[in-house]
Amino acid sequence: MTDQPLPDIRPDVPHGARIWNYWLGGKDNYAADREIGDAVSSVFPEIVDMAFKSRQFLIRAVRHLAGEAGIRQFLDVGTGLPTMQNTHEVAQSVAPEAKIVYVDNDPLVLAHARALLVNTTPEGVTQYIDADYHQPDRIIEQAREILDFSRPIAVMFMGVFGYVPDYDEARSIISRVIDTTPSGSYLALWDGTSTSEAVVRGARAQAELGSPYQLRTVEEIRGWFAGTEPIEPGIVPLTQWRPENVEVGRTEHIDAYCGVGRKP
Q1: Which residue ranges does UniProt annotate as crossing the membrane (predicted)?
Q2: Predicted TM-score (pTM) of this structure
Q3: Is domain 51-194+219-242+252-262 annotated with CATH 3.40.50.150?
Q4: Mean pLDDT to the nearest integer, 42-46
Q5: Is it the case that residue 7 has pLDDT exceeding 70?
Q6: Domain ranges across the chain
């Protein structure tokens, strides 16, 4: 939880959360992260746009879940470094009483979470679990101390499974968490897809520098939603999930797919 001691930060070891922070224009990254970020963007410049578009999907999804879907509990696994409009800020702006549990295991993320991931409303709850998404049982155990698992929960995995090489392991992590939630809960996720030569080159450059990211097929991402009922518009590119203020037919394609599924 948030009162755990802070482990040593390793600036010489690249980390996905800090690389992503660099692409988003943040300052919470180190030379090792920037080296990989520059190498990937040199062969796949669209990665920077993907970073922003993924955040916009998160905002739209959380706004829908807290609003129209009536969800009041969120479990954001692999949250990354705090940036613009974090999950708790979006959820509590719609539902002031919303409870949000963030999960990550990067010590720099933990340091910033302690300072920045705090309630925006007096009636809300915002907490942080220092855990790895490879440890779903640990996540569930600690989340139960904060969230009511007899009531619906929105479980979020935003761009984290590219760092899980084995597809079935990622599917197991998702199912082990979702299986503990009741009917009416939701799964929201996105991940990078091998839908262009450019994105494949970018992933190859990232791997060659020691931070491999496993792209998925669209069908594989659809498979992660097994056991849920994807809401409209289904499993689609980031920019096509309920876009706002965009003319029909003018939303550009992006090499990352997303969706929100309801547990029956």
Answers
A1: none
A2: 0.89
A3: yes
A4: 87
A5: no
A6: 51-194+219-242+252-262
